[in-house]
Amino acid sequence: MESKCCYYYDLHRRSQSHRIHSDWSLHDDEYVLAYINVTYTDPVSGAVIHQGGEIGKFSTGLVASARGRLVHVRSRNGTAHHGCDGRYENDLPPAPQPWVALVRRGLCNFDVKVENAYRNNASAVLIYDYKEGELHRIHLTQRHKDTIVTVFIPKTQGEDLAHITDSGVDVLMQITPGKHFRYADNNLNKTSVLFVSVSFILLMVISLAWLLFYYVQRFRYIHARDQLTKRLVCAAKKAVCRIPVRILKTDDAQLAEGECCAVCLEPYRVSDHLRALPCRQDHN
């Protein structure tokens, strides 16, 4: 019972050298790459190896520099490296010596991994993915935002580091903030997006209203033209019906003189129906 109390006391006790603060104030649409530098001695050649690059991405929490010996945390008799158990089975560096926890993504959420690493006095948490793909930004709750540096790295680099540390090689790691970026999808101002959307909708409404007005006017014009045509045809038929008609006989003067119709230029014949036009011309 006494050892259990002492164990939890050690977990909550944290060296002042590990308390780091971030000078970065990031928005949700911003992120910072992490430059990770590792140094270790090759067990075969004895040469000192230095490797580094912007291979990681800081979480939504603390963005600051961190350093220490890299430890691939393990639990459950060495079968799990996800950092989901609070009691690590590794021989951790004694306080105040800094160290960096290397954990695998999965089995529990990021907050649990960060909480366990923080309780074990880690100066930073390096989480590597379990699959190849886009490097995401880890989102932490408000509780863990300013407690410990958290960086997400790809699967390949994480497994390479895990292989080196699991082979018994001491790896010293330095994490520093790299380039600062803004997500392209969120660059548009919300007011601008709203203005463009409203303008587009308004333009569509005006276009539809104009199109509707055009076709209504066209329909009214065609309908009025048809009605006028019908009225003119009826008026013409009535006017023709009012013209007096007579039948041409053999003794009529038109036949004797050999006259022709002034309209169709055809010669008159017996029994033709003649209409006496107002201009005093006879039309058959």
UniProtKB/TrEMBL annotation:
Q: Which compartments is it annotated to reside in?
A: Membrane
Keyword list, A-Z: Membrane, Metal-binding, Transmembrane, Transmembrane helix, Zinc, Zinc-finger
Main localization category: membrane
Q: Which ranges carry the PA domain?
A: 68-161
Q: How does it sit in the membrane?
A: Single-pass membrane protein
Q: In the UniProt record, which is one GO cellular component term?
A: membrane
Q: Which residues cross the membrane?
A: 193-216
Keyword Transmembrane helix on entry: yes
- This one is known as Protein goliath
